[in-house]
Amino acid sequence: MTRGSPRVQPFNPEKREYDAFEQALLNDWQHDLPLVERPFAVMAEKLGVSEDTVIEALQALQEEGVISRVGATIKPGSVGAGTLAAMSVPEQDLERVAALVSARPEVNHNYEREHEFNLWFVATAPDEQHLAEALAVMEQETGYPLLDLRLMYDYHLDLGFDIQWSQNATKS
Amino acid sequence: MVTERDKELIGALQKGLPLVRRPYAALGERVGMGEQEVLRRLADLRAKGVIRRHGVIVRHHELGYRANAMSVWAIPDERIDDLGEQLAGEPGVTLCYRRRTAPPAWPYNLYCMIHGQDREAVLARRRELAEKYGLDQWAHRVLFSGRRFKQRGAWYRPPQPAPEKAEVRHG
């Protein structure tokens, strides 16, 4: 497989198409990143491109936001403390409350969902006490109580996300 | 056993690996750890299952998976582990959790996330799974996502400030 420098362009999900090299980068390296001094060189060899091509493509995809990061997911509960929380917020107040919640460094995901409990967020902290304090502060700042829905068991093995390119890669 | 040094390393990794030729050396520099020690500790954390997945972490929405539904059920305690394990192995299920309930407002204990290109695809897959395992005999809800106010990896250590991605509407 040969290819030139990765394109860096404003991301438009309606227009974006991924070439075979990018598809391989996105789908085939979601786990078992090589644990060697130069992991991108190992990937490059398998993909038939140069090490710098891999690095530049990953940088571009990360810049676009398609890749959140090249990193690790941690087994819940093994490091620090975390929870899923939900709030019921009147629609006219949702933007304000969501902004207050998002501003907390402990919050990594924060979504609106279609339910009476319409704001859902995940919070993680170095320890239980820090997490409890952060949740209490969020209730105080926003003026709404939250549901603290602690994880009891994670059934999923997290093998990554199998992207169905035939349906998604080429959009009109 | 996860040591303090391991936690420092995980903390340094939480925003991602530096995209340079020797990323583990660069990562180690953030926490005063040599390249070989970083490699040894990461291999150990992977072997122990503390690191579940180490690689490219994609965003579903940006890849065209615009709809995602959190499906929840109130499953009796004696059935939940069996059903949760089977559901977790089904294609299209990206997360599957048991969580504490908050009755009466929130009696649901089994959570399953399904991503798809649109609502119809997600609902069709959910219906298949519910029928296969008889899940909808118990109380259930489907919560599609609306606005995404924030999305990044979890931070296990106090982080350095960084710009966040702008809000995106989807679902």
Please summarize what this structure is.
Chain A has 172 residues and is of the alpha+beta class. Chain A has 6 helices and 6 strands.
What does this protein structure show overall?
The complex is a heterodimer of chains A (172) and B (171). Chain A has 172 residues and is an alpha+beta fold. Chain A folds into two domains: 1-73, Arc Repressor Mutant, subunit A; 81-149, Alpha-Beta Plaits (2-Layer Sandwich). Chain A contains six helices and six strands; from the N terminus they run αααββαββαββα. Chain A has helices at residues 20-28, 39-47, 51-64, 94-102, 128-142, 165-168, and strands spanning 67-74, 81-87, 107-113, 119-125, 146-149, 151-154. Chain B has 171 residues and is of the alpha+beta class. Chain B has two domains: 4-47, no CATH class; 61-146, Alpha-Beta Plaits (2-Layer Sandwich). Chain B contains five helices and six strands, in the order αααββαββαββ. Chain B has helices spanning 4-13, 23-31, 35-47, 77-88, 119-133, and strands spanning 51-58, 67-73, 93-99, 110-116, 140-151, 168-169. A five-stranded antiparallel β-sheet of chain B has the order 3-4-2-5-6. In chain B, α1 (4-13) packs across α2 and α2 crosses α3 (35-47). Chain B starts with a helix and ends with a strand. The model of chain B is unreliable at 160-171 (pLDDT under 50). Chains A and B meet through α2, α3, β1, β2 and α4 of A and α1, α2, α3, β1 and α4 of B.
The N- and C-terminal alpha carbons of chain A lie at a distance of 25 Å
Number of helices of chain A: 6
At CATH level 2, the architecture of the largest domain in chain B is: 2-Layer Sandwich
Give the low-pLDDT segments of chain B.
Answer: 160-171
Number of domains of chain B: 2
Order of helices and strands of chain A: HHHEEHEEHEEH
Give the overall form of chain B: elongated
> Helical element count of chain B?
5
Name the biggest interface.
Answer: A-B, 84 and 81 residues
Which strand-content bin applies to the residues of chain A?
15-25%
Could you describe the largest sheet of chain A, including whether it forms a barrel? 4 strands, antiparallel
Strand order of the largest sheet of chain B: 3-4-2-5-6
